[in-house]
């Protein structure tokens, strides 16, 4: 008997699974490796202490599993046959693992392959037949036609040569000789065309050589007769016609006739081969189509019988399950659609087994709970009297609680008034601090603007310093130029005196310029020094203003937080006051409810008697449910 593991998630769907556990039996924990011959480490349904028949079934099943495992491990009298049977079943299961679509596709594919083979065979045979037809059309028929024309030309040549011997006029003989030459030329061209076609056998070419030799001898005999006629020896020409002429004419006739017969024979052979190829095509296609049909029908019957047998096994198992036997072994599962159905049926069977076991446990638990319910009903009756006396004392305590709540409520009103005054003062302080912060920010903006302007002035003074340096460099260069000009004027003598005076004036002017630039540089340096000191002082002032502004902002935030805290305190006090009022009302309501509880306690005492009677009825129902569950074999 196959034991199934519990279905995951089934405990959540069946609340009675959480009842107090009863005695359970397990075999082969999943953490221990199991030999293939041994039973799978699967779940054994719980067995109650009271159901001894289930224990005997479990022991019998365990003994059967042990005997099968021993026979598998140590070999039995039919172990070879069992292995062969197992191999055959594995092969069948391999085919059963294919889906229905795959099976039908394999059957259709096998049939299609056979039909493709038939088509390929047909194409091959048709190509052979086409080759034979081409041979007949391009080789045999033209050969027969040319051989017939040769025979016709041979006959016309012979008749014309005889007419030449009978012609008495010279003009008629000349015409006959010209006609013989034309016939000889046509016969020669026809033989060359026959030879150049290249589609004839060696025998035909041998016969063609024979025709060439016979025609040459025949034409030579005719030429000799024509020569005798021209010489006036008509009797000699007639004798030649009756001897050599006739022999060569008959030789030409026989050679051309043999060539015609050879072409006719080759044509008949080609036609016979074409007929045989056509019969082969018909026979081969018929055989392949017949084999394809037989295999398709056999495959269809085999697949349908295989599916029908498995469906019959599945239906038998379903009927046994419907009859109440939940221990029946389901058919081997596979990976096709029927295997999916079998797996679903196995899951349903396992679920039903577990459900029956759970229902059995639940029925036992219900019976136990019914007995406990009867005992509890008696205890409820005893405790109802104690509850009545306790309700009176609770009512007195609630009255005292109402007085205390009224006193606390009056004190919370005073606290709410103080919290309101604190909130007003905090709002006024925050407004003053906000104005102070605004003034400090204005001062910081003015000082920052002054620092910016002084920094700009310092940058301008630095530009003046650079200009003064340039002017000083120009004055020095001018002084050097004036000195050089004075030297050059001294060298020039009297002619350079005027230039020397000008150079001296220029030198004096450059000296005064240098003195002025030095004074300007000194003044600019003093201005820059003063500007730097002013910038440093202003930056220090800006830093101090920023610090005071930050501190004032922090003070404002602190006052704002104090304002929020006082507002929250006021809200809390208001909520507390409301809660106290509600508690006062609730205490009054509780007192009234306690009186009602006292009245209901008396009703509970009478209801406990009815509960005991219902528990007795529930115990009877649980026994009936146990009898129904025992009909199922799990």
Automatic annotation (TrEMBL):
It comes from the Bacteria. One of its GO terms (molecular function) is transmembrane signaling receptor activity. GO terms for biological process: chemotaxis; signal transduction. The keyword Transmembrane helix applies. Pfam families: 4HB_MCP_1, HAMP, MCPsignal. InterPro entries: Chemotax_Me-accpt_rcpt (IPR004090), HAMP_dom (IPR003660), HlyB_4HB_MCP (IPR024478), MCPsignal_dom (IPR004089). Residues 1-22 are annotated as: Disordered. CDD domains: HAMP, MCP_signal. Keywords: Coiled coil, Membrane, Transducer, Transmembrane, Transmembrane helix. Residues 305-357 form the HAMP domain. It is found in: Membrane. Residues 166-200 form a coiled coil. The chain crosses the membrane at residues 104-124. One of its GO terms (cellular component) is membrane. Residues 362-598 form the Methyl-accepting transducer domain. Belongs to the methyl-accepting chemotaxis (MCP) protein family. This is Methyl-accepting chemotaxis protein. It comes from Pseudothauera nasutitermitis. The lineage of its organism: Bacteria, Pseudomonadati, Pseudomonadota, Betaproteobacteria, Rhodocyclales.
